[in-house]
Amino acid sequence: MLLINQKQKRQYCMHKVIPILLFFTVVSSEGIVPLRVDDAAFDKVYEKDVTYSSPWAYTYTNASGSDAIRITVTSLKATEADPILILVKRQQSVLSWQIPLILEDTFHYTTVSRILCPSENPTPTGNQTNSMRMRMAKGEEFTIEIITLSTDPIPFSIRTETISNFQQEGQPSLKIQASPWAPQYVQYKMREGAHRILIKLDSAPEVGGNLCSFLSIQSARCPVGDLDTRLRLDGRFQTVTTQGAIEVSREQFNGTFFIAVLVKPHDEDCRDRQEMFSVLKSKTNWLTNTSSHERVKTVVISVIDIDLKQNHYVIAIVAPVAIFVGFFLVAITLLQSSASEWIAVLFMKLDGITLPTKERTWGISRLMERSVHGAYKHAKTLGHP
């Protein structure tokens, strides 16, 4: 367990601390001014080249505080030696990642898609000043910076889009497509009066039905832990291949939370222990699964209300007791009845059933005593002690 925690901390530092240091290194250099694109348009693809001396900055304005934002960046020429950094600066938080995205020190992804949760969601501190609320009422302005330390041009493309149906409530059925490089999550709000619900995941067999994935429930605070390096540390999660479910109560997340789906870059976390150790002997076997961008999984998320009323608890308690007592009475009656009375019981002929008397009870006891005594004498004649 200690080794696993150290590995998670190393990956966290690689994906969080190093990009931030890279950012401060670039912006602190004299004479470097980012090439700016003000009032950048949503749903438009921008294709540029980035170098150490020519970083790019795109400024967007999201008019709706309830809409989420998806950012997709691709760079086929970025390498582990010369990566590019994507830095998203918002009013209350900073989100960063690099391309290529490296998962578990083995899997490289040249396309990464991340979701920015709505600006009206609380941050980890939960504090919003009046000036912040006034600015957000006019729309959130955020900046996406593309930077690198490479002196050679690295081409990239960026596309930003809004997600209008990000917030869900009631009992929806959502179809979501996720991958290791494009995690998906939605925000769910429990209906008034609901106390316990079941979040159920069903995989679509035609698209990545058996791929190993994570189903995660997290607090509705920004930023969300949607990558493997943070998902294990936040909220609740379980590994899923074809079906999975997590029960959630209102007290756990105050009635509002994120439902996140992330596909693993390999299937080892979903194998049984014996098979897992046999496969992990060779790391190259990981790549024989569906690799890189081909690991795409489609799932259906359903929300089921499982609140139980008081009469449900009474029925659940009384019904088993009544069934047990009924079987007990029938068994006692059959043991002390003749064959004709058994038939009467089976066919519900109540006139043919007679209740046991003292004489019949004494007769059954004598019969059992003689049977035991006869068995003992028979064993003694065979030479058994």
Structural notes for this entry:
This protein is an alpha+beta fold and 385 residues long. The protein is 28% helix and 32% strand. It has 8 helices and 20 strands. The chain has helices at residues 2-27, 130-137, 228-231, 250-253, 273-279, 310-335, 339-346, 358-381, and strands at residues 35-37, 45-50, 56-62, 68-74, 84-89, 94-99, 101-103, 107-109, 111-116, 140-148, 154-163, 167-169, 173-178, 184-189, 196-203, 213-219, 236-240, 243-249, 256-263, 297-305. Strands 1-3-10-5-6 form a 5-stranded mixed beta sheet. A 5-stranded mixed beta sheet has the order 12-14-19-16-17, with no helix packed on it. It has a 4-stranded antiparallel beta sheet with strand order 2-11-4-9, with no helix packed on it. A hairpin with a 4-residue loop joins strand 5 (84-89) and strand 6 (94-99). The radius of gyration is 33 Å and the shape is elongated. The two termini are 58 Å apart. Mean pLDDT is 75; it is low at 1-7, 14-18, 20-29 and 281-290.
Helix and strand topology:
Elements: H1 2-27, E1 35-37, E2 45-50, E3 56-62, E4 68-74, E5 84-89, E6 94-99, E7 101-103, E8 107-109, E9 111-116, H2 130-137, E10 140-148, E11 154-163, E12 167-169, E13 173-178, E14 184-189, E15 196-203, E16 213-219, H3 228-231, E17 236-240, E18 243-249, H4 250-253, E19 256-263, H5 273-279, E20 297-305, H6 310-335, H7 339-346, H8 358-381
Parallel strand pairs: 1-3, 12-14
Antiparallel strand pairs: 2-11, 3-10, 4-9, 4-11, 5-6, 5-10, 7-8, 13-20, 14-19, 15-18, 15-20, 16-17, 16-19
